[in-house]
Specification:
The structure holds two protein chains of two kinds. In chain A, helix 8 (324-355) runs parallel beside helix 11. Chain A is α+β, with helices and mostly antiparallel strands. Chain A contains 16 helices and 14 strands. Chain B is an alpha/beta fold. Chain B folds into two domains: 44-125 and 270-323, Periplasmic binding protein-like II (D-Maltodextrin-Binding Protein, domain 2, 3-Layer(aba) Sandwich); 127-269, 3-Layer(aba) Sandwich (D-Maltodextrin-Binding Protein, domain 2), CATH 3.40.190. Chain B has eleven helices and eleven strands. In chain B, helix 2 packs antiparallel against helix 10 (298-306). The longest helix of chain B is centred in the first third of the chain and has 22 residues, at 2-23. The chains are: A alpha+beta, B alpha/beta. Chains A and B meet through helix 4, strand 5, helix 5 and helix 15 of A and helix 1, helix 2, strand 2 and helix 7 of B.
């Protein structure tokens, strides 16, 4: 690279001189001939058409970005609620879409699509209305949007809030609602804590039960020693049960008290058509009146909903709530993949570039590596399934988890296998980039080090590798971009629709790499292609797409910043 | 002329019934008892592989089940009914949801591995619906017409190959418009069921646009004014309309309502099945047992309704539970 850049420097003035000479002659020529000839000879059409093409590409990119941004970010904004009276009743909800339909007489009529919510009352959350059939429209100030844990939104009016015997009605009900929702959710939270306490207290008993279960399993396989243990275990379980009973009963009583207290809190809502609906307060995620909200309140709500989207678990079969498990799964998978692919790729490239002797074998290996980059990703997925999941995973299960068989531990898709499959997929990118990085180290540096008496390994480790780091990191960046967006191979090696238990948690051994995981790319596919309520889920698809784009950009930015730091550090030291 | 007349009359009759169908709210049998938590530690992996029609149902059940037992880890995978039997055989899943019944060949493979047959549970009722765009004026179709639209073999014996909407009796601008077909991919139980029942095991036309999910069939039709397709009735949206189906040319068209599906009048009704591995005469794994009990409880069947499918009666729930040796006490109200 050094020598070639020196050559460049020598060549540049000549090339420049050449060019200006050419231009002078062209001007002279065009003076005599038709001006059009110069236009062609200077290659202006090519310049223009390439400029135009670039513009097209940029426009397409910008269009896609703007679409995802608008649709993805707009979803969280609380939209105004429109109440309409039609011949088939009154409905309340935000306008989602409008189009022009043709009725029987082929006359165009405007129609609007309302998100009417109340899936439990109407069956569907969306409905089209002919504007001719709409008798009146209004934006009532006290219209409430209730986000519920089940059945989607409820649209209507708050009538009363009930806490045990105390019933608050009218405007006071709205004042009390938020606090009571929080109280109800707090009660639920405490109930869950009590559940945890119950399980913890019961642990010795559960352990004995597990022992009994495994003894019974072994006894079935004609293990006499195990059958002998069974009566003894049964006795131990009975004593333990007796010992723990009072404590357990007390916790259970406490929990039942909490449940009763929680269930005593509900609110009465009335839909636009007058149907009333009792909703448990702990089932309400949040309730707001979009028509009478101030701008700052709307911003606050926007942030809260965005927060929920990023950091909460999905609800209602992934069509509502958040996507945190998918986000976490994607990041962890990319990190695991990077950890696997970087050492492997660098070592392979080092050997190929520094040690292997040039010849037909090396050329064949290089060709193979380059071709590997062109193999369709689904083929990698199938390889991963056969080799990692069934091969290595099956072997691990037979050797270390034999007692759990036939239920597989590692012999089924999991985040580890998915990461390793993607590592194979991105290996060629890293190998090629590392080789380029190694080739870019000036041979003078190498020769200098060798001349000073360093061994080949010392030269490599202390002189060549540090200077090749930016090139290697370029490879890693490309690998990350590729891996974060890849879905097809993951579908075979461990991605699932729902896996709220994260692969990292507080339970020993903390990292559960055999677990299946959720992934943003697959989430997009699943929600758009397979969700039961595809209209309600559509905004989630755009939001998730936006998040995936941002994630790829963020991962790349980190890698680029690291690379630039490295470059800075070795620029001075290199020569 | 006579045909268009009947269509027009049927249209007038049906516009009313469609309004009813979309507003219909189904109640779960009040005799069905609520789920009661057992005093036993239920934890471990709950893993399901199979039908994508039931994917959301399994997910919703799993979400509901986890509210009772937060220690349970859930993994739901749904890429088609055909993926369930291998997953059960390889023991990569405890639950195999299938939107069709297992074929004899699949049962044989299962028996070869375990030495006993898989346990078959009918969890709920579903109806396949034929969807058209919401602006499509077609009032109803007979099964013969459906066959002639989707199949190139026409085993139901309709006289001609139907390729334009004019052949379905539509007039004006619609008459010359070609019918655009949407369907499922071949791994799906919906594909298999529709082929078996509506097409009488005939072959689909090559022009059917095969979609990777039921929701994408509905999405495709929403965007395509001249589209028609089939999917589970639970996937309906406001952008599409369900066409009532007549079992044959002489009968009245039947809408896919709960009553019609439960009584068997609707020709495209089916059960949504769940297969589990259960050696007869042994105790079922507590996790599997409790999950099945949850499915056949009040909460479980309410989830069925929430997902747009049809629940079972308390009596059938008790029968299904008896299959795995669990007794259910009906709550009389």
């Amino acid at each position: 690279m050094r020598s070639s850049s020196a050559q460049m420097e020598i060549e540049t003035p000549t090339a420049g001189g050449h060019g200006s000479g050419e231009r002078r002659r062209l001007v002279a020529v065009s003076g005599r001939r038709a001006p059009l000839a110069g236009f062609w000879r200077q290659g202006l059409p090519a310049v223009w058409s390439s400029g135009f093409m670039l513009l097209c590409v940029l426009a397409m990119l910008a269009g896609m970005l703007v679409l995802t941004l608008v649709r993805g970010l707009g979803h969280f904004w609380p939209s105004a609620m429109l109440q309409i009276e039609t011949t088939s009743g009154a409905f309340l909800g935000p306008v989602r879409d409008t189009d022009v339909g043709r009725d029987a007489s082929e006359a165009a009529s405007e129609r609007l699509q309302l998100k009417i919510g109340n899936r439990d009352l109407y069956g569907l959350d969306f409905r089209w209305f002919d504007s001719a059939a709409i008798q009146s429209r209004s934006h009532p100030q006290d219209a409430v949007t209730v986000e519920r844990e089940e059945f989607g939104n409820f649209h209507g009016y708050l009538r009363e809030v009930r806490v045990g015997e105390r019933v608050v009605a009218g405007d006071a009900a709205w004042q009390a609602l938020d606090a009571e929702i929080n109280a109800a959710r707090e009660l639920r939270h405490r109930g869950l804590e009590l559940d945890g306490q119950y399980e913890k207290t019961r642990k010795p008993l559960s352990k004995l039960e597990q022992k009994l279960e495994s003894a019974q399993r072994q006894a079935r396989a004609r293990d006499d020693e195990a059958s002998a243990r069974i009566p003894e275990l049964r006795g131990a379980i009975a004593t333990e049960k007796e010992r723990l009973a009072p404590v357990l009963q007390e916790i259970a009583a406490q929990r039942d008290g909490l449940v009763a207290e929680r269930l005593a809190r509900d609110a009465l809502f009335e839909a636009a058509d007058g149907t009333t609906k009792q909703i448990q307060l702990d089932e309400i995620v949040r309730a707001y009146r979009p028509n009478s909200m101030s701008a700052p309140a709307k911003v606050g709500l926007y942030v809260a909903r965005l927060w929920e989207f990023i950091f909460h678990e999905p609800r209602e079969s992934n069509t509502e709530g958040g996507i945190f498990p998918a986000l976490f799964g994607t990041v962890l998978m990319v990190l695991l993949m990077t950890i696997a692919v970087v050492p492997l790729g660098i070592v392979a490239a080092l050997y190929l570039h520094e040690y292997a002797r040039e010849g037909p074998v090396l050329r064949a290996v290089r060709l193979a590596v380059n071709n590997l980059a062109g193999v369709p990703s689904i083929v990698f997925g199938m390889f991963g399934l056969a080799f990692f999941v069934y091969g290595i995973g099956g072997f691990i299960d037979r050797t270390f988890y034999a007692e759990a068989l036939p239920a597989p531990t590692f012999g089924t898709g999991g985040i580890l296998w998915a990461s390793l499959t993607l590592a194979l997929l991105t290996l060629p990118v890293v190998v090629v980039a590392t080789e380029e990085g190694l080739a870019s180290v000036p041979s003078a540096n190498r020769e200098g080090a060798l001349a000073l008496g360093a061994t080949k390994w010392q030269t490599l480790w202390n002189v060549v590798l540090p200077q090749a780091v930016p090139g290697i990191l370029t490879g890693v960046i490309l690998a990350i971009s590729r891996a974060a967006g890849e879905v097809a191979p993951l579908m075979l090696t461990g991605v699932v629709k729902l896996a709220p238990s994260l692969p990292l948690d507080g339970v020993f051994p903390f990292a559960h790499l055999e677990r299946k995981f959720m992934h943003l790319g697959f989430h997009i596919y699943d929600v758009s292609m397979q969700s039961p309520n595809v209209e309600a889920a559509k905004p989630m698809v755009y939001s998730t797409t936006l998040l995936l784009l941002l994630l790829v950009v963020a991962l790349n930015t980190v890698a680029i910043v690291v690379r630039n730091r490295m470059r800075q550090r070795y620029r001075g030291a290199a020569i | 002329m006579k045909k268009t007349m009947t269509l027009a009359v049927a249209a007038a009759l049906l516009i009313g019934s469609i309004g009813v169908a979309s507003a219909q709210v189904i109640e779960v049998d009040p005799n069905l008892p609520a789920y009661t938590k057992v005093d036993e530690t239920i934890r471990g992996n709950l893993s399901s592989v199979g039908s994508d029609t039931m994917n959301n149902l399994m997910t919703l059940w799993a979400e509901g089940f986890r509210k009772h037992y937060p220690g349970v880890r859930v993994q739901v995978e749904g890429k088609g009914s055909s993926t369930a039997p291998p997953a059960l055989i390889e023991a990569t899943a405890q639950f195999g949801p299938m939107s069709r019944q297992m074929k004899a060949k699949e049962i044989d493979a299962f028996e070869e591995k375990y030495g006993f047959k898989p346990t078959h549970l009918r969890t709920s009722l579903d109806a396949l619906a034929v969807f058209v765009h919401k602006d499509n004026p077609v009032a109803s179709m007979t099964l013969e017409q459906v066959d002639a639209v989707f199949s190139k073999t026409r085993k139901r014996g309709f006289a001609e190959d139907v390729v334009t909407w004019g052949q379905m009796g539509l007039e004006g601008g619609w008459a010359r418009r070609p019918i655009s077909l949407y369907g499922r991919n071949s791994a799906s139980g919906t594909y298999g069921f529709f082929k078996k029942v509506a097409l009488k095991k005939g072959d689909y036309k090559d022009t059917v646009k095969e979609q990777p999910g039921s929701a994408s069939v509905v999405q495709g039709i929403t965007e395509d004014l001249y589209g028609i397709g089939y999917s589970g009735i639970g996937y309906r949206t406001s952008g599409v309309r369900i066409v009532p189906i007549a079992p044959d040319a002489d009968s009245d068209p039947v809408a896919g309502t709960y009553e019609n599906v439960a009584s068997g009048k609707y020709p495209l009704g089916r059960h949504l099945n769940l297969y589990i591995v259960h050696q007869p005469g042994t105790d079922l794994d507590p996790l599997v047992r409790e999950f099945v009990r949850f499915i056949f409880s009040k909460e479980g069947q309410e989830i069925v309704v929430k997902d747009g499918y049809f629940p079972l009666t308390a009596k059938s729930c008790a029968e299904e539970l008896a299959n795995i040796g669990v007794e259910m006490k009906l709550s009389r109200k």
